[in-house]
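Open question from group meeting: does this chain pack into something compact, or does most of it stay loose? Before anyone orders reagents, we agreed to write out a predicted structure and look at it together. Recording both the input and the output here so the notebook holds the full record.
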Amino acid sequence: MIEKCLFPAAGYGTRFLPATKSMPKEMLPIVDKPLIQYGVEEALEAGLHHIGLVTGRGKRALEDHFDISYELEDQISGTAKEAALEGIRRLIRECTFSYTRQIEMKGLGHAILTGRPLIGDVPFAVVLADDLCLNPEGPGVLAQMVELYRQFRCSIVAVQDVPLAETASYGIVEGEVIREDIVRVTRMVEKPKPEDAPSTLAIIGRYVLTPDIFDLIEGTPAGRNGEIQITDALNEQARRGCVMAYRFKGRRFDCGAVAGYVEATNHVYQQGLGRVA
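Structure tokens returned:
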């Protein structure tokens, strides 16, 4: 039912300068594997084989990563180092990759709209690679959401509780509790001050969206800093029909911030989830 996953990956990653001056933030490694690869692996686990990336200037390394490197592979062929490429070879073999470029950075809503030619008129997932989500004890977050989509057939956003003091960093949802882990969204507020936050349920970088979201984004006026926010389009979608917020099983690391990135690296290393040889 859902076969496509969109990765908005055009941002500059300014919180990691100077490292991201010439390297995409999505290529920052967690132990031995870049963030973007973790995201694509999560998508493939959920049955999403068609991967679309919305890139920008200076992001060529993303395309190169999901391609064959003949010189490198020739050099390590037949050695123990060849095993390190097994994961990326599987992704190249089992997924198709398509790319488009976002010319101007105008917010997440605009980035998703830029990916419309890669998606078409079908439901799809969205992954923000700098949110690393891990669930070693069960299905990944995206697989959980795809299964939920089969039940509700509407847009779904992943949410987690955050401290009240941090609501100004997230889109915050309000709604009717359907069950312990599902809320039917009635309203979303983009980065509210703590005193204005309707809840502490924060949207993280995992979405399942129905294709009507594209028309809603097109009709969404730009807000602060000229950006088009996906929460505005989702608000309209919730008003017209149905949007669910899902408290996922697993752990999320905000690798868009230095502290979260270091925490994720330490966690993956200590849990033995990455190669350490």
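Observations to bring back to the group:
The longest helix spans residues 258-271.
The chain has a mean pLDDT of 92.
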